[in-house]
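anyone seen this seq b4? input:
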Amino acid sequence: MGQLFHEARKRLRQAAKFLDLDPDVLEKLKYPKETLAASLLVRMDDGSRRSFKAWRCRYDDTRGPTKGGIRYHPAVCLDEVMALAFWMTFKCAVVNLPYGGAKGGVAVDTNQLSKSELERLSRAYVRAFANFIGPDRDIPAPDMYTNAMTMGWMADEFSTIVGQPSPAVITGKPLQLGGSLGRDDATGRGGYYVLRHLERDLRLSPDKSRVIVQGFGNVGYHGARMLHADGYRIVGLSDSQSALYAADGLDPIAVMEHKKRTGSIRGAMGHGRAQELTNKALLEQECDILIPAAMENQIDAQNAQNIQARVILELANGPITPGGDQVLNHRGVTVIPDILANAGGVTVSYFEWVQNKAGYYWPLTDIHSRLKQGMEPEARRVWDIRLEKEIDMRTAAYVHALDRIAAAVTAHGGKAYFCS
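predicted toks r here
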């Protein structure tokens, strides 16, 4: 068992202390239901063949078919895939989606592949896992370094294998291939809805609050864009190459236009002078709200001592280690956890799946309205659990999710039922 998965399971054990659980529940959630590893043999443009390690993990399907993205990254490994599938299980439960959690990944640097090689790799993934996924079994989606086109290739390959159109097998597809409106900004928008809903409880106000976003990809950009439009001052942004800090504020739309022109945010200007920093240094700058929207384990027990934000909104998966959590909780920093804050993405993925199943597609206003109506009550319930049990928000979110999963597990009969 790897370190990341081991750390992820600590969240489960912590939440279990606050619930009267049937022993069957923790036993069922101890390990993934099933995990498959494969080697994808791909013909390269120069005529050679290369093999790529690939995985898919279905963690738990008690509440419905499993759901989770497919990540392309050189550092992807089984430990990471299992941890992400675990998080997805709780993320789906905390926002009450009829799903379990899953995740997939390929150990690959997409920058070293041509577009044709990337397509062959994506189709090879589906061929390897065709019996593992399915519209009523396991529904993949985009993740790091995969996108709508990748999902379109995958859905097409699966449809070819089963001999009929099967758009509901994959979410995050292009609109023209059965994708949903609102999917592009769903993760950032969901976090935005949660933050705005809890604004008064967190003692935040748009005209006085400063925001730093670490990770200026799709998720970070849309989160920053919406907060900026509401009057929040975006004082820090970063991508994989550089970080900017400007006390007078940055316009995320202008910075993104600069990034599209030059390939990086380096050199983009703020309303005043923008200071260039490292990603690590940006996390420790003065602000009211810090939004990690990049990779896992960005804040640990060491640098958590230097975080100056009062509120952290986790739009990335697992950006804070358990050690970092302990330090932040001790210092009184409120962390809105990933399984709540970034659940907008999987929620709109669910909407896409429902639309694919029905063959009827909703207007964008309906998507936004349904997302808001889905996120806000769950954010409120997590906040209330936090107050009732006098615990941090992450533990409260896990308590909320675990309570739902436990009810589904014991609906089949638990130890108490069979021993009565």
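The longest helix spans residues 364-389. The mean pLDDT is 94. kinda curious what u guys think
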